[in-house]
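Hi team,

Filling in the usual template for the complex we talked about on Friday. All components are listed, including any nucleic acid strands or ligand strings, so the model treats them as one assembly.

SUBMITTER: L.P.
PURPOSE: interface mapping
COMPONENTS: two
RESIDUES: 257
SEQUENCES:
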Amino acid sequence: MDEASDMGEELQKYFDNLIARIDRLKAITMTDRDGVVLIQASTSGTPPKVLEPMLSTTFAAVSDQASRLGLKRNKSLVSFFELYQVVQFNHSPLITTLVADADSNTGILLSLGDELKEIAQLVATVTHER
Amino acid sequence: MLKPKAIQQVLKQATSGGVRATLLLNSEGSPISFVAETDREARIYAAIASNVWTTFEKGTKSMTQDDGVRFLVVECEEGTLALTTVSKMMLCLVAKPEVGIAILKAKSDALVRHLEEPLTNVMTNVS
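RESULT (copied from the run log):
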């Protein structure tokens, strides 16, 4: 087994642990700007609809628009629905998406941003090399 | 009849404590009333906020079974944009980066509570 697949397993384990550790976090995905999933973890009850790549591609479009506000680069987007809240990070060139219950703690989800940014950079470097 | 100046008085109350601009936009994204440092700034915020909301709403329509996105917070390096709907219009708050999401949510909820009924009445009479 090569180094990259070892790292893949480690990252999958880390994402699974994150789901178990953060209360009411349903799913976490790391994708590129076209919505191609690189790593994903979710609880068993997560509706497949919220894991669709459309969420990442929509964020990519919104993030580009928001970067024209005159407030410099877009960092994140938080959206609230009736049942869910979605926190998305612009970890360029990747996008990290967290889907949680509507009443879960948004601050905790946002505080994961820096931790996940380092992982996104690592994944981006490895996928670029391959 | 809508009185933009009366609405502006309400929006002004939310434009404090790090909130730089507050705008009420119609469904096409044109500002009905706003409080901002300059008209140019308000026009930029209005155009982009409306685009952001429409893009996100369209993109997530198939994702949820409920009636779609309710509140949107766009965090940038030098500021935060908060968006929601009131009646058939859009409410937009632009704040400095140090303003927390919870404050923006509380302010926009308060504005929605205050404006929902009168705006709905006006919209019903117009249509």
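MY TAKE: Chain B touches chain A through 33 residues (CB under 8 Å). The first helix of chain B runs from residue 4 to 14.

Thanks, L.
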